[in-house]
Amino acid sequence: MRKVFYFVLSAIFLAAGSAAFGADFWENKPYDTWSQKECNKLLTNSPWVEDLPLIAEGISQSTTGDDGQQLTINYQIQFRSAMPVRQAVVRQMQLAQKYDTLAPEQKQQFDQSAKSFLSADFSDVVVVYVTYRCSSQDKSRQIDRHWQSQTMDLLKNTVFLRNSKGEQVALTKYIAPQGAERSFQFIFPREINGKPFITHEDKSLQLEFSYPVIGGVGNGRGFLEFKPKKMIFQGNVAY
């Protein structure tokens, strides 16, 4: 009986160990211990981030970059309102500013700013942060002009979030690129008809938006799909 009991306990501990080993770092490590590599992974290759790569079909003067190579444009979509993403942003700033070497008053200032960012209230809104890059500087400027000129009224009928139940929410706010930034933000409501837009039951979360066709690249409509079951943080869907 003692031997059987020992093997049962062993199986339990092995199962627990396997579960812990399989957990992602954002679940089992405090964010202020994440490495630069881990931050990069969360901000570029995680359940909260998707890329929309666009490549010109065929080669012509209008579809080549500054180096004469095939023109490429990439949009990267990130759910900035998701807590793990915000934590990665703060941790990247810690590493960039060499937080451990800062003077006490500088640490205090950094901590206050980080706390404000991490405790921001996103209970009513979803923030989708979009960055873009292009292999041609000239065509990058064309893309810049497009997104800088966009307004809420121009985008409200072409930008949506959809869930797997077929429901969709439209854009409620647009934040255009500032200065030399090549990024902008789409902001959506977090609820529909008084209920959460995304729950554990949803199999997909989709973003649809229009983008400018520059140099014949793309068809002007972007569709990206995220998996809510993978966007779990501390037991809840984070987005």
Residues in helix, %: 25-40%
Biggest sheet character: 5 strands, antiparallel
Give me the number of helical elements: 7
What gross morphology would you assign?
globular
Mean pLDDT: 88
Strand content: 25-35%
Descriptive notes:
With 239 residues, the chain is of the alpha+beta class. It contains seven helices and 13 strands. It has one domain.
Give the structure's gist in a few sentences:
The chain is of the alpha+beta class and 239 residues long.
Fill in the keyword field for this structure.
7 helices; five-stranded antiparallel β-sheet; alpha+beta; 26% strand; globular; 239 residues
Describe the protein's topology.
Elements: H1 2-22, H2 25-28, H3 36-44, E1 49-55, E2 72-79, H4 83-96, H5 104-118, E3 125-134, H6 137-149, H7 152-155, E4 160-163, E5 168-170, E6 173-175, E7 183-189, E8 191-192, E9 195-196, E10 205-210, E11 221-226, E12 232-233, E13 236-237
Antiparallel strand pairs: 1-2, 2-3, 3-7, 4-5, 4-10, 6-7, 8-9, 10-11, 12-13
